Amino acid sequence: MSPYSRLMTVPHLVTEIPGPRSRRLHDERGQAVSAGFGVTLPVFIADATESTLIDVDGNELIDLASGIAVTSVGAANPRVRERVAAQVERFTHTCFMVTEYEGFVRVAQWLNDHTPGIHEKRTGLFTTGAEAVENAVKIARAHTGRAGVLVVDEAYHGRSLLTMAMTAKEHPYKTSFGPFPADVARVPNANPLRGRPVADVLAAIEQTIREHGADAFSALVVEPIQGEGGFVVPAPGFLPGLREIAYRYGIVLVIDEIQSGLGRTGQLFASEHEGVVADLILTAKALGGGLPLSAVTGRAEIMDAVHPGGLGGTYAGNPLACEAALGVFEVLEDPGLLPRVARIEGAIRGRLEPLLAEFDVVAEIRGRGAMMAVEFADPGTLAPRSDLAQGVSAACHAAGVLTLTCGTYGNVIRLLPPLVIDEAVLAAGLDILVDAIRSTVAGGPDSTIADATEEDAA
Ligand SMILES: *Cc1c(COP(=O)(O)O)cnc(C)c1O
User: Which residues does UniProt assign to the signal peptide (predicted)?
Assistant: First the structure.
């Protein structure tokens, strides 16, 4: 569907949310799909534009989630669709470890050229974000000959066994799924709202390293802005401090840009805001424009430390996903795109920051670019108010705006609009969000909707 084929009177609701067709399909789902899968909003999608999702009942919802930062160029981007359609006509798969195809090499070259740092680089393509994290650890271990992995508080790195161990939040990600791989150590985070001063945090991290032994750790893995952990922008100096420590102890610095990368924060990579260059940088989510694709990109001497045959995967760098990524790159190279992301941040701050003075339970508006969050907490004690975040999100959903929550305590609303969202549609979505905050906060905890407590997925 052409993004301009509809009048921009959205959200456009023709039934309650979810509507009768979505409800019927959701009932069928219950009989067919494992109960282990959660859902943020039980609405079934039939079509999409650059800014909206259209459900099976004909409701058009404003998309402030991008499928968790995946459809950054929109869920129906013409460049992605055309390239994938053309590739489907040629062939769907060979397995890159069996016979090669050009798209894999072109994606690797683009990432080598566009990730921070002018050193010689190599890239490995995989399928999911968790796989990229696991492969970064494999590569760092092969390069250093060490086992240990350092991660920070509130981190999210995935749902596989190793990445569950690296993820901080217990429920729903780890509950009943252990035991986990050993050799993962967690260090404090420089969370400006709740954490200790940066110098103390860095000193504590060095102490942990010395306690384990200066040659214990292969990799230090960190998100430059935490995703699931609550869109925590680390205090200034934290990432450069980690860079220093990693150099000092010969640890591979792995920057997990799976959620924050590829234009999301107004720079191509969030680590650029602090001028920090990773040894290995991880991308996924937005990389494939909705098709499953992930990458590890980094210093040639580290990436090439692995023996031939040591890396791979049946679907790693699938040809359809590589063509989709090449379409995504065309959108990212448009010189108008990053300024557009800066305008998204301006619009969100302009609309939400006045609420800081209006409501003392609005604890912080934070983030960068199109990766913005509202945290709800009691004044003074900062006791998390997940009831408010869940209530606001439920009110947005009922009014046709798709929002997500996040945070260790589930008390944060996160906004991840497509980077190409129509500015009038974003404004309409923010109006509804502000109304939802006003009515939920003014109504107190009793006005929140009881069944809106399911966790978001990543
Ligand atoms: C989503 C996410 C992952 C895991 O990616 P999957 O594709 O779900 O395996 C890892 N790290 C971060 C920061 C993420 O946001």
Answer: none
